[in-house]
Amino acid sequence: MSHPGTEGVLAPSELKRSITARQLYFYVVGDVLGSGIYVLIGLVAAAVGGAFWMAFLAGVAVATITGLAYAELVTKYPQAAGASLYVNKAFRSPVLTFFVTICMLSANMAAVGSLASGFVRYFAGVVGMSEDAVIPTLLIALAFITLITVINLIGISESVVANVVMTFIELSGLLLIMVIGVIALFTGVSEPGVLLEFSGEGSKAVAVLAGVSLAFFAMTGFENAANVAEETVDPSRAFPRALIGGMLTAGTVYVLVSIAAALAVPMDTLADNTLLEVVRADLLPISVSVMLVVFGLIAMVAISNTTLVTVVAQSRILYGMAREDVVPGVFAKVHPTRRSPYVALLFGGAIVGGLLLIGALIQLGGSDLDIVDRLATITVVFLLFIYALVIVACLKLRGTGETPDTYRANTALLYLGILGNLLVLGYTVVDDPGSLLWVAGLLAVGLVLFLVQRFNGGARDRPSTDGPTATAGTPNTDEGR
Amino acid sequence: MHVIVATDGSRASLVGAEQFQWIADSREITDVTVVAVVSPYAAVPFANELTERRNPQPTDFSFREEAEAAVGVVAAVFHGWGPTVHRQVRSGSPAAEIVKAAEEASADLIALAAGGRGLTSTILLGSTASRVQHSAPCPVLVCRPKRSASS
Predict the structure, then answer these.
(1) Domain annotation for chain B: domains and CATH numbers
(2) Beta partners for B86?
(3) Which domain holds residue A131?
(4) What is the pLDDT of residue A231?
(5) What is the pTM of this model?
(6) CATH number where A177 lies
(7) Which regions span the lipid bilayer (chain A) (predicted)?
(8) Is the residue at A87 inside a domain?
(9) Which residues of A touch B93 (CB under 8 A)?
């Protein structure tokens, strides 16, 4: 069925967009802030030492340059598909486009797993449970994933107001850490010299690089802004400002929080721990036990918010691919009243649960695997690859589709961005080759979906030579029932 | 008389539009505005179940265009019926935007469909329809798919 353009009397279609630059800014800040620093600060601190704020600074810089490329591409192509769309426009390779889409999906799933494990650490901190018990932490992480999936099934996290409120809660926790840092500085708890200390032996640059790949995880999420590009008022003005402004806000907060944490807590306490250690330092004139609960709750809200947005992005990718016949049409099924893609949501939840289960089994087998670290690393591997490719796409698409309104990123910075993304990607893979097995596993899931579609769908031909599924067209299973 | 016909892209909403047309008298109606609302933050901002895949490239997928296509299908119900047919795709919270559309058009009636069938729709009652009923500036006609038509 196509557009019925045959109505007797027909007024032109009207378009009304709803997201303002300010709402977009809060969307970016909220999405970026919740992800990393609450979960990863201890790991980054352990990798670098007292100077770990430099790792965050470097991560912020590379991510923000990538953000510039996104801003340019979004103002040219304000559509929902994000990275896949840009790569398709630039390279016209269906295989590469499909690969990038699967990478994005996998990155989201690994990120949700890492966030869920990070959530458990705060939960354990608040209720006073041991983080080392494998089975209980797995069960809590699975319960968290179930809860997030149910919230998305019901669809109650969709309001603009809720988004802004969540962002302020996320910010409040980090402001608290900054206040503690200022108190630590003035009461002389530790020497400011700690900020220039590196833990590892060898060159300082390598030490920072070791932290960057994890710190980078903290900046991810900004690419989700492309999801709402279609609904943004005046995107060519709103996007560059909201995206870059939001990332710089988040980046500044990160650097200040990591400086504050380094000042307030000895490095060996912070290493491999959460921000709860900073609160536990007891520098505020309020009871520690109260503050631990308050801060733990703030952290859990922050992590939940980012997880919700990530799960939304993930189910959207699956839904969109199903609508376009790239993966089986069952993923395009929506609940009749709630209008949520329940098959995509349940499938995503199952894959994330599977990742956590595998992690727990490896831990039970006697390995000292850190599941937060591992899944964050996998996310970063996928995203660094995608980001580098998006910047290349941005440069390659120069001169096409430009209007006087198009935002134009600085070319030299973009080249620096490609180099930065590839450098961190290279280091991450060399440093943690075990993560590649997980990467391959997630890619295999995508391949299976593609093959199922190809061999189940087959019969119906699509017009001419398009996407990777030109021969794999199938009527959407939702239709014609 | 100006009527707002809302669609969420479901087949129930298409059946609802047909039911409204069957009930209404076209001589009394001057304008029909078919409205769809895209919810940017929802997992699926607009789920169009009324058309098949339409894009030559998978990456051309657009929720706004999905909404426009669904509006087109529902608007086609009123083809040759008499009233001027307007199409509108809005953005935001579905219930609030349907009410706003009615207010802007000084509509005299809102016609929409209430959910699907089964236990879940009884518990999680079609919240858009009930919210619109609460705050609408005009009468609201809530259509439900007939059991025989929906199987």
Answers:
(1) 2-150 (3.40.50.620)
(2) B33
(3) 21-457
(4) 86
(5) 0.86
(6) 1.20.1740.10
(7) 24-46, 52-74, 95-113, 133-154, 161-185, 205-222, 243-266, 286-313, 342-363, 375-395, 407-429, 435-452
(8) yes
(9) 158-159
Region A266-270 average pLDDT: 83
* pLDDT, tens only, A398-407: 888 788 778 8
Number of domains in chain A: 1
A411-431 vs A371-396: helix axis angle to the nearest 10? 150
Interchain contact, A14 vs B69, CB within 8 Å? no
CB-CB contact of A44 with B113 (8 Å): no
Q: Which one of A2, A228, A230 has the shortest CB-CB distance to B62?
A: A230
Task: Give me the interface pTM, i.e. the ipTM.
Answer: 0.87
Residue A444 has pLDDT above 90, yes or no: yes
Number of A–B residue contacts, CB under 8 Å: 191
CA distance A266 to chain B (A): 41
pLDDT band at A14 (very low <50, low <70, confident <90, very high): low
Residues A308 and A162: their CA atoms lie apart, in Å, by 12
- Tokens 């109505």 -> residue: A7
Residue A10, domain member (yes or no) = no
Question: If residue B20 lies in a helix (H) or strand (E), which one and from where to where?
Answer: helix B11-23
Ranges of residues in chain B whose predicted pLDDT is under 70: 115-126, 145-151
Contacts of A159 in chain B (CB under 8 A): 41, 93
Q: At how many degrees (to 10) do helices A204-219 and A235-264 cross?
A: 130
Q: Is residue A15 part of a domain?
A: no
Nearest of A109, A120, A176 to residue A311 by alpha carbon:
A109
